[in-house]
Write a structure and sequence with these properties.
With 111 residues, the protein is mainly alpha-helical. It has three helices and two strands, in the order αβαβα.
Length: 111
């Protein structure tokens, strides 16, 4: 048996544009999974999320170094966010738009 991405639930980030479109401005939308890099935070905000959580990254930092590990995790994510925004040519989160994100199509299993 071959296990691949086609046998799992949709990735929440891929559902984000539809959720934001359906809810319009009525509700804050957060992303609570899949945040492993500052670019994931930037992409989520650009796609309309109000904010993201960093649970897994936070926990990795906590396990690796206690409070200092968490502080280092936040420092790393902050640097990645700043670098990604510089590369996109934006100076604030409010400037981010869906056009700043390229979502690659999922490969479909053939066979």
């Amino acid at each position: 048996m071959v296990v691949g991405s086609w046998d799992r639930a949709p990735v929440p980030f891929h559902l984000l544009p539809e959720v934001v479109r359906e809810l319009k401005a009525d509700t804050e939308v957060m992303v609570d999974t899949g945040i492993m890099h500052g670019a994931d935070i930037v992409a989520s905000i650009a796609q309309g999320a109000s904010f993201t959580l960093i649970g897994r990254a936070y926990l990795y930092g906590l396990m690796a170094g206690g409070r200092e590990g968490v502080d280092k995790t936040i420092e790393i994510l902050g640097g990645q966010i700043a670098r990604t925004m510089r590369l996109l040519g934006v100076k604030s989160l409010e400037e981010l738009e869906p056009d700043h994100v390229k979502i690659l199509k999922r490969y479909t299993h053939v066979g």
